[in-house]
Design goal:
The complex is a heterodimer of chains A (108) and B (424).
Chain A: H1 2-23, H2 28-46, H3 60-63, H4 68-77, H5 93-103
Helix pairs in contact in A: 1-5, 2-5, 4-5
Chain B: H1 14-30, H2 35-52, E1 63-68, E2 73-78, E3 83-88, E4 98-101, E5 107-111, E6 116-121, E7 126-132, E8 136-142, E9 148-155, E10 159-163, E11 169-173, E12 185-191, E13 195-200, E14 205-210, E15 218-222, E16 229-234, E17 240-245, E18 251-255, E19 263-266, E20 289-291, E21 294-298, E22 304-309, E23 315-320, E24 325-330, E25 336-341, E26 349-353, E27 358-363, E28 369-374, E29 380-385, E30 390-395, E31 401-406, E32 410-415
Antiparallel strand pairs in B: 1-2, 1-32, 2-3, 4-5, 5-6, 6-7, 8-9, 9-10, 10-11, 12-13, 13-14, 14-15, 16-17, 17-18, 18-19, 20-21, 21-22, 22-23, 24-25, 25-26, 26-27, 28-29, 29-30, 30-31
Helix pairs in contact in B: 1-2
The chains are: A mainly alpha (108), B mainly beta (424).
Pfam families (chain B): Cytochrom_D1
InterPro entries (chain B): Cyt_cd1_C_sf, Haem_d1_sf, Host-pathogen_enzymatic-act
Organism (chain B): Paramagnetospirillum magneticum (strain ATCC 700264 / AMB-1)
Chain lengths: 108, 424
């Protein structure tokens, strides 16, 4: 039990830390563009203040219920059966990880 | 007060306008309790002065509003000289903001994403009423007689109806679908009488609310219309209501001259045989295009515009375009259809000749074209260029730009001639 808990803890901390590590790869100029994409393009459905619209709210308190990986997967692959499209044609995995960390309040 | 005196050399009295909207906002800041009264006083004072200065008198027929979405602000513009007249701030979250006009074309009812409903006097550039009516809204409509304004809400769903003169609440109509859950409302439009038609996104239903007796609204419901209706339009004659379905390959259609026949499906499988492409922004049907007997619609998941036979509701043609179309809008005479696109093709605009059904020009006026609005007779079209922070005006005959106005992250453009059109 103890061991399982430790392993789970390690996995969780890796997943949480991972977007931050990936984010280091993104240039400041690209980061500004991604921030803008969140406001403007994500904002079309999720609201510029992220309180939701046709899409669900993207507030920190909503996203902390999810793992960083789940957020990254949703950004890249979309949510089939809903209007959330896969953004992998426009964003790299590192960029999606940066956005996930940004939305989850780990980056400014 | 000296500043409000007549200056014949000033063009169109624009300076007086600014001064006097400034007066209104000063009044708001200093005496909040008397805000509305003071604003009205300032407006009356302003009108008096405007009448005294005849060059400043003007109608509203060539006016409009441009949403500056990131700043919660509106630009008051005029389309005879392509200029900005005033700025109206303090409107909250205007991402995906929409508005309708009073029948006298003086007041705009602005629907903000944050649930704010604001009444704006475009002659004075002042907010004359504002209520926070829900947590999250998408749009609204004004009744045929101009007395009621209905707002379609995402959170908690349903519609709320207000007195257009006072913004007093008139009715609150939840949208609980057949599944027993509250539903987001989209595609609201005005019908004849004090009626509104709208669609329940989650439940897949079309409802008509009759407010002839506002204390006891009468509802007519059409259920099982299809999966995830994302937007709807009503034809300008008020007869046909079409709800686009995101979850299915087809469109739900209601004939309002024969409402007992119910909703039927048209254009089933318009994407059959092709894998749908990602849709990075929901198409808008509201800017629908009718040219003669044809209706032009953005295809969902395809880089195409559909041409549909109005009345028979069969597909006549489809035209390949540069990306996922968001708006397909007809020039008022129906001779051209202008199309803009979702990201990543959102810096292009294509013009289609409706007779030959060919793209005659691809324009690239700047970065991220969000919205297009024709002047009432169609000689010009205004384009909001979000990421270039400007509005560009094109001549629709030469297809050349004729004017440019700076604007902060502009999105929707709404001219006052919408006041006299059903569904707008």
């Amino acid at each position: 039990m103890h061991l399982l808990g430790a392993v789970t803890g390690a996995v969780v901390s890796v997943l949480v830390a991972w977007p931050l590590a990936a984010a280091a790869e993104i240039s400041p100029g690209r980061q500004a563009k991604l921030r803008d994409m969140v406001d403007q393009d994500c904002g079309s459905c999720h609201g510029m203040t992220r309180q939701g619209g046709l899409g669900s709210p993207l507030l920190q308190e909503d996203l902390v219920k999810l793992s960083a990986e789940a957020v990254v997967e949703t950004i890249l692959e979309g949510r089939p059966g809903t209007p959330m499209p896969p953004w992998k044609f426009m964003l790299s995995r590192e960029e999606a990880a940066w956005i996930a960390a940004y939305l989850m309040g780990e980056l400014k | 007060m000296k500043r409000l005196a007549c200056h014949p050399e000033r063009k169109r009295g624009i300076s007086s306008w600014r001064t006097f909207s400034g007066l209104a906002s000063m009044a708001q800041a200093e005496i909040p309790r008397l805000r509305l009264g003071m604003t009205r006083m300032a407006a009356l004072l302003g009108l008096g002065l405007l009448s005294a200065c005849s060059p400043a008198l003007r109608g509203t027929g060539d006016l409009g509003l441009v949403v500056e979405r990131a700043d919660g602000r509106l630009m008051v513009v005029e389309n005879s000289g392509n200029t900005k007249l005033a700025s109206v701030a303090g409107l909250g979250d205007l991402s995906h903001a929409a508005l309708v006009y009073s029948r006298d074309q003086r007041f705009a009812f602005v629907f903000g994403r944050d649930g704010g409903l604001s009444k704006v006097d475009i002659l004075t550039g002042a907010i004359v009423g504002r209520v926070m009516q829900s947590g999250n809204s998408i749009g609204g409509a004004i009744s045929q007689d101009g007395t009621l304004v209905a707002v379609a809400n995402y959170t908690p769903g349903g519609i709320k109806v207000f007195d257009a003169a006072t913004l007093e609440p008139v009715a609150d109509i939840p949208a609980i679908g057949g599944d027993g859950k509250p539903s987001k409302v989209i595609g609201i439009a005005d019908l004849t009488g004090k009626r509104f038609i709208y669609t329940l996104y989650d439940a897949g239903e079309i409802w008509i609310a009759d407010l002839a007796d506002p204390k006891a609204p009468k509802l007519t419901k059409y259920t099982n219309i299809g999966k995830l209706p994302y937007d709807a339009l009503i034809t300008g004659d008020g007869r046909w209501y079409l709800a686009g379905l995101f979850g299915e390959d087809g469109i739900a259609l209601l004939d309002l001259w024969n409402p007992d026949k119910g909703v039927r499906r048209i254009l089933d499988h318009y994407g059959k045989g092709k894998e749908a492409l990602p849709v990075y922004k929901m198409p808008h049907l509201r800017g629908w295009a009718a040219a003669g007997d044809e209706i032009w619609l953005p295809a969902i998941g395809h880089h195409q515009v559909l041409v549909v036979d109005k009345g028979r509701w069969t597909e006549k043609a489809r035209i390949d375009v540069a990306g996922q179309p968001v708006f397909a809008m007809a020039r008022p005479d129906g001779r051209q259809v202008w199309v803009n696109f979702a990201v990543p093709d959102y810096s292009k605009v294509q013009v289609i000749d409706t007779q030959t059904k060919k793209v005659i020009k691809t324009l690239e006026p700047g970065l991220a074209i969000l919205h297009m609005e024709f002047t009432p007779k169609g000689e010009r079209v205004w384009l909001s260029v979000r990421d270039s922070d400007k509005v560009v005006v094109y001549d629709t005959e030469t297809l050349e730009p004729v004017a440019e106005l700076p604007a902060a992250r502009p999105s929707g453009i709404f001219f006052t001639n919408r006041a006299h059109k059903t569904g707008l």
